[in-house]
């Protein structure tokens, strides 16, 4: 399917163009990444590995880019806020910035560091949760997040907005078969620790020294049985309160903090 042409509009006094009606210029089946919101777009513009295809910005957003000292990689198209609204869902907060970009290159398994930390997500499908996990992963310098090609959200749109720029700092490794991916991590020497509220071991009592793979399951379902079988150990997080299980993004944050403390000792 061919892409619709870029809208032609009258030239403005500045060096940017103003399209009369902004429209997506991506094919439905290509790998275009949609980024919107100040932090996701700014981090993408500052990432030398990210190729920006198209940038839409309001006049206020252009001023803010200049104040932040950010140089756009492509010539921005000046638009009204409503032009970006039409490209997104009604509840999307874009702050006057919208970008279409290429996906970032994926690292190979052999490129992971010998003392690294990887998060493995077993069918965690909520993009808000994965975005929150990405933010935490970036804060704790996680080396990669592993997901499957299916049953996981694409690294674009809502996920990128929830990640608030962290998508540019934590690479994704997508695999067809999670069991095989866990096997490859084991071959690299990574200890695979699955988080499970009913596990016999307490997370505080096991070694979290790197190289480490923390394996998290979806809310409600948790880890699948086959995924459990490919973990070296299953561990629970004992909570002092009445609620025993946590949102997967909160569980990831606590586990990464524990791993950080173990790494620092």
From TrEMBL:
InterPro entries linked: Alpha/beta_knot_MTases, Ribosomal_eL30-like_sf, rRNA_MeTrfase_TrmH, SpoU_MeTrfase, SpoU_subst-bd, tRNA_m1G_MTases_N
Protein species of origin: Terrihabitans rhizophilus
GO molecular function: methyltransferase activity
Region (Disordered): 1-28
Biological processes, Gene Ontology terms: methylation
SUPFAM superfamilies cross-referenced by the UniProt entry: alpha/beta knot (SSF75217), L30e-like (SSF55315)
Key words, A-Z: Methyltransferase, Transferase
Record keyword Methyltransferase present: yes
Domain RNA 2-O ribose methyltransferase substrate binding: residue ranges: 34-107
UniProt keyword Methyltransferase present: yes
Entry superkingdom: Bacteria
One Pfam assignment: SpoU_methylase
Gene3D superfamilies (alphabetical): 3.30.1330.30, 3.40.1280.10
Protein name listed in UniProt: RNA methyltransferase
